[in-house]
Amino acid sequence: MKILVIQQKMIGDVLISSLLCDNLRKAYPKAQIDYMVYESTTPVLQGNPNFDNLILFQEKHRTSRKELFKLLLSVRKEKYDVVIDAYSKLESWLVTFFSGAEKRISYWKKHTNFLYTHSVKKKTVSDSNLGLIIEQRLALLDPLEIDLSLKTFPEIYVTPEEKDFAKELFSRHGIDQAKQTLMLGITGSEVAKTYPLEHMAKVIDFIAEKGDVNLLFNYIPNQLPEAKQLYHACKETTRAKIYFDLTGNNLREFICIMDNCDMIIGNDGGAINMAKALRKPSFIIFSPWIDKAGWATFEDGINNISVHLQDYKPELFEGLDPKSIKKKYAGLYKEFTPELFASSLNKFLELHLK
Fold first, then answer.
1. What is the pLDDT of residues 289-321, one digit of tens each?
2. Residues 131 and 174 in one domain
3. Which of 89, 117, 144 is the last residue of a domain?
4. Are 254 and 248 in contact (CB under 8 A)?
5. Which of 6, 128, 300, 351 has its CA 20 to 30 A from that of 343?
């Protein structure tokens, strides 16, 4: 049997959908399982034994019809028996159509239903603490009628050599590894997903006052100005605990660094999802326009806690659809002051700080 799983999206989605490969490997140990993803997301999949080949959807496939056609032909030549399209956008519709697979599975959409032999309606309400996004992904396995208990927690694999690299890197930066180290997700993937810096500075000061800890900032090079602004907005006593320059040179190095941390606190995004896959406790601050129900995965009030403005001021969201909420994100963020969730953050820190 040959199976293709398609998930052409960002890091969090690729990690969640890797669960499809994990469970397919359990159900069909001798099958060829291939995973199509964007090239930029591959570092989170290194070492995963549950797929045979990564098929990379690259920028050239978006910009060149010739390159896209070559990719479609290569998929066709594999003669897949099953295609599971977890992405369900134009790119993956084309891949699915050209695959010629006997079973083609995706989410139900009126205008693309003809492409698939099995369409799964997306759940809109979660009935577990897995989070809606995980429940929706696992539902794509339903048409295969797999009679096994499903794996529900995605993993990132870190080698012993990578663990040693992180420890040596911490030592080079003068970090006392006898203390706990907290990763701070200080920015989101865009401004509309980034907790205001003036609010975040207060959050970081609050954390720093709770114990003798090491603090790391997670940011990418083009976010350096914002990171510096935030650093200088913190109290001097807080800045003494921040190791500003320890960030890693690439995504894999960030994973190694995160693996050597004790927990993560900050904006929702790829860093949070990677930390969870490394089994690190997380405290997440959601943007007002993001659906918390979807991405608050493994929410248990202990190891994974998240906060959203709607938890505290639901009246601000009355009568607003998602597009309207996104347009108002800046004003809503101003309302989302650290004082609203101080008790939740304090509970999280009391549970996890030594």
1. 998 888 899 999 999 999 999 999 999 999 999
2. no
3. 144
4. yes
5. 128
